[in-house]
Design a protein that fits this description.
This protein has 768 residues and is α+β, with helices and mostly antiparallel strands. The protein has 12 helices and 23 strands. β4 and β5 form a beta hairpin.
């Protein structure tokens, strides 16, 4: 239930979560986003235009620089080219021409004449020059003239100039020239553009520069991408915009560069203007959003205050909003809702109080019912259960006394099985079968009885003033068990619990009585089965001893007959005697299995624990079973290492285990082989018996170790046996503290694995 304190617990609105902040931030963010996108678009287009303009200006500058370089190189070719005149036929004439050229042209350092086969014939050098020609043997003379082998030595630029002489096979002149004139011939920067140029070798060494270039001759430059504007750095580390152009007349490139601050100055100026515009737009947006948000928050705060009043149950409060829009309509709806809540709240409080009382009563009844249920199931004896039902029923219903009547047999009389609070001889112990015929609705489970005489034969001479009763039928799905009688001395007194609770109690009581009876029946059947099992075990043991005595006599006399002690036998008699011996031994084996089984069931089978050699034990088993394998043409192999340790256990019983496994493998294998293997794993022997027989289905692998079970248990099975061999084998392995497992698939044979401790932990007495 809400109180006046609900108002103080309402969450307070902070600047971080207020609607005012959201409106202001949203409007300001929207304006900032629009201005930012506009600035980005304008900046991008201006940047593209600026880059294109820089590319055009650098291309123009590069064209003029290329023309100046080519004019300079052409002048050098013209000055040197006269020595290749066709009138010079002899080597002496070439020497004279070369000497004259060296006197007239200071930029020429060395001259050499090569004949048509590329061999040097004449060389002339300036006396003050130490720079030699790069090559002294051209090989075949190239047909085209040109500059090659650019070098920078001591700040000077040198190159080789090759000039073929007119006419085929007349040779060529190779001149070593100084290209210092290139630097002075590069054009100056255009006003307002600020571009400068550098002529560089293919490996980036500067050999000529314009007046604004920060580089010196011999500096190594980073080559930009040919033909496109590239951002780079000059020798001083300042960012520049550069473009590389190739030179056709010289094995070098022309790099035209401009400082980045000058090239992108229009973009910088635009960004400054846009920043000021963005700042102005944000100021305007903040002012507008503050004004709009304040006008919206006034009615919202009025609604918020009204909601807090309603939360504190002050439904008489009214929200006053006069905006003429959706806020005023919402305030009117809130006021209407407050009127409805005021009415509903009063009705709800009374209903909650009633439901709370009913719930408290139900909880009390359920707690009593739970305690009653635990009490009546505390014992499995029928008499104790009936007495507990009578006592708990009287307490639960608030009656003065109670009694439980149970049906002795279907359609027969009711017998009083227990009571609570009844004086002696107050009611009859035996009631007729039709005692409840006039008591009330026979189909009901809880029957109020206002006249006790309607229950035939109930009252006796000493009724002790009981005026009314309540009948609770006890029954379940199997039929009616009887009824519970609750007696009261006050006919007008109500029941202490509801009819539903009594109905549930009746089901619990019937279930407890049924369970107690079943427990008694199961207990009695268990004692009978234990006695029968003991008789069966004694019978099997006695019969096994009684059958073995005459059978041993039959086998003994048959061996005497076979040895000829009573005279020679005919061939047919010998064959019949051999069959008698085979079947007798088989019968003796079956009797021994039955005897072992009965000893195991009776707990009489113990072990004679002694030291044994596992290898010798396996060898004795395979030797004994070899005749069975040879009769079926099966290969019986043994894989046992010679270093097995000495084990401790019952050697005779372990021989029986292996004989059962090997015998079964041979019996169920028609073709192929049977293998016996052994190894040591940690402190255990692991023995495996594998065959190539028909295999065992996964569904049968668990039950083959149960007694009297075989994979093929039909009347037409091909192999005989009692189904006790593997059961006895498993028990013997368990007695040694080991385990036995089988792995098999149909058609893939079977592998039986026995794991035994090398030394049995507990010594046992020898089996009787």
């Amino acid at each position: 239930m809400r109180t006046e304190g609900a108002l103080s617990s309402a969450p307070s609105l902070t600047w971080r979560g207020s609607l005012f902040r959201k409106y202001v931030l949203t409007l300001v963010s929207l304006v900032a986003l629009v201005l930012t996108i506009n600035a980005a678009v304008e900046t991008w287009f201006l940047y593209r235009e600026t880059v294109e303009r820089v590319a055009r200006s650098q291309a123009t500058f590069a064209a003029s620089a290329t023309a100046a370089v080519e004019d300079t190189l052409a002048e050098i070719e013209r000055q040197v080219g006269w020595v290749t005149r066709a009138s010079a036929q002899s080597l002496a004439q070439h020497r004279e021409d070369y000497a004259a050229l060296l006197d007239q042209t200071p930029i020429v350092l060395t001259l050499a004449f090569f004949d048509g086969e590329g061999r040097e014939r004449v060389r002339a050098r300036r006396l003050d020059s130490t720079d030699p020609l790069v090559s002294s043997d051209l090989g075949p003379v190239p047909p085209h003239k040109g500059f090659q082998n650019l070098q920078v030595v001591g700040g000077e630029i040198y190159a080789n100039l090759l000039l073929p002489h007119p006419g085929a096979g007349t040779g060529a002149t190779l001149a070593r020239v100084r290209l210092t004139a290139l630097t002075g011939r590069l054009p100056s920067s255009t006003a307002g553009v600020g571009s400068y140029a550098d002529v560089v070798t293919p490996d980036g060494v500067s050999i000529a520069r314009s007046d604004r270039s920060p580089h010196a001759t011999g500096d190594r430059l980073t080559l930009p991408t040919p033909g496109s504007v590239t951002y780079a750095s000059d020798a001083a580390g300042q960012p520049v915009v550069a473009t590389q152009y190739s030179l056709a007349a010289l094995p070098a490139s022309l790099i035209v560069a401009q400082p980045l601050s000058e090239a992108l100055a229009p973009v910088r100026d635009l960004l400054i203007r846009l920043v000021w515009l963005l700042a102005f737009g944000l100021v305007v947006a903040i002012c507008a959003s503050l004004l709009l948000a304040r006008r919206m928050l006034v009615p919202i705060r009025a609604l918020h205050a009204g909601a807090e009043h309603f939360a504190a149950n002050r439904f008489e409060h009214r929200i006053a909003v006069r905006t003429g829009d959706e806020f005023e309509a919402l305030a009117t709806r809130f006021n209407t809702m407050a009127d409805a809540l005021s009415t509903s709240y009063a009705r709800l409080e009374s209903e909650i109080q009633r439901q709370t009382r009913d719930l408290a009563r139900s909880v009390s009844e359920l707690r009593a019912l739970e305690e009653t249920g635990r009490a009546i199931v505390a014992s499995l004896q029928v008499d104790d259960v009936v007495r507990a039902i009578a006592a708990r029923a009287a307490i639960l219903a608030g009656s003065d006394a109670s009694a439980v009547y149970l049906v002795e047999a279907p359609g027969e009389t009711f017998r009083r099985a227990g009571d609570y609070g009844l004086p002696p001889s107050a009611v009859s112990d035996i009631l007729p079968a039709n005692a409840l015929a006039r008591a009330g609705d026979a189909a009901a489970e809880v029957i109020p009885v206002h006249d006790l005489t309607t229950i035939s034969g109930l009252l006796t001479g000493n009724a002790e003033g009981f005026q009314a009763a309540t009948l609770i039928i006890l029954g379940d799905s199997d039929g009616r068990l009887g009824f519970l009688l609750l007696l009261s001395r006050d006919a007008a007194a109500p029941l202490g619990s509801s009819e539903h609770v009594l109905h549930t109690f009746a089901h619990q009581a019937a279930l407890a009585i049924r369970n107690a009876r079943l427990f008694q029946e199961v207990d009695e059947k268990g004692r009978q089965l234990a006695a029968a099992d003991l008789h069966k075990t004694q019978f099997f043991a006695n019969m096994s001893h009684e059958l073995r005595t005459p059978l041993n006599a039959v086998l003994g006399y048959s061996e005497l007959l076979a040895d000829g002690l009573y005279g020679p036998l005919s061939e047919k008699a010998s064959q019949a005697l051999e069959r008698i011996q085979i079947n007798g031994r088989h019968l003796l084996s079956l009797i021994n299995d039955v005897l072992d089984f009965t000893k195991i069931e009776a707990g009489l089978l113990t072990l004679d624990v002694q030291d044994y050699a596992l290898g010798a034990l396996i060898e004795s088993v395979t030797v004994a079973a070899s005749s069975l394998a040879q009769a079926k043409s099966l290969a019986l192999t043994v894989d046992v290492p010679q270093t097995l340790p000495i084990g401790q256990g019952d050697e005779r019983r372990l021989t029986q285990v292996l004989m059962n496994l090997v015998g079964n493998a041979i019996k169920f294998t028609q073709t192929g082989s049977v293998e016996v293997a052994a190894r040591v794993v940690d402190d255990t022997f692991v023995i495996t018996v594998s065959d190539t027989g028909p295999g065992i289905a996964p569904a049968d692998q668990a039950r083959i170790f149960d007694e009297f079970q075989q994979v093929d248990s039909s009347s037409t099975r091909q192999q005989g046996g009692t189904g006790l061999g593997l059961s006895i084998t498993r028990q013997l392995v368990f007695l040694h503290g080991g385990r036995i497992e089988v792995r098999s698939e149909l058609g893939q044979g079977a592998v039986f694995q026995v794991t035994l401790p090398i030394r049995t932990s507990v010594e046992r007495r020898k089996a009787s």
